[in-house]
Structures are given as structure tokens and as C-alpha cells.
Amino acid sequence: TERLKGMGFGGRSAIHPAQVAIINEIFTPTSEELTEARRYVSAYDSAVAKGHGVIVDESGRIVDEALVRRSRRLIAEYPTA
Per-domain residue ranges for the chain? Predict the structure, then answer.
């Protein structure tokens, strides 16, 4: 399940009810993941406003449209977290 999340999946199926809790735990983003997503969106939007399409954040990670699209989906799915 963790590997699937790392590959970009947003969930998985289960064959037994006992599996649901761990699946939910793994696929529900942490507050740190949501904070990071918001930071990516903010930095990217600022860069686009200045005419840039791809940026590198302070940790050296490339922040491009694909990462920002995923971040926006995450924020939309968990707006109050």
C-alpha cells in the first residue's frame, strides 16, 4: 500500500474489512504533506506570474506543472486538514 502511494495512486481496493483502516491511514495525507502541497502551489503560482514555468524549491526539488496539479488535487480533496 505504501509503495502504491509512492507511485502516485490515491487508493486501492481491499478484500477484507480489516484492511480498510490501514489503507485509509496510508492514503490520508499528513498535515506536513498538505503544508508542502500548499507551499508548492504558492511558489509555482508566484513563478508563473513572473513568467517562469518550472522552479526549484529550497530543498532542490523541481516544482513543475505535474507536481502542482497533484498538489492542487490533494488540497481540494482535503481542504480543512
Answer: 2-77
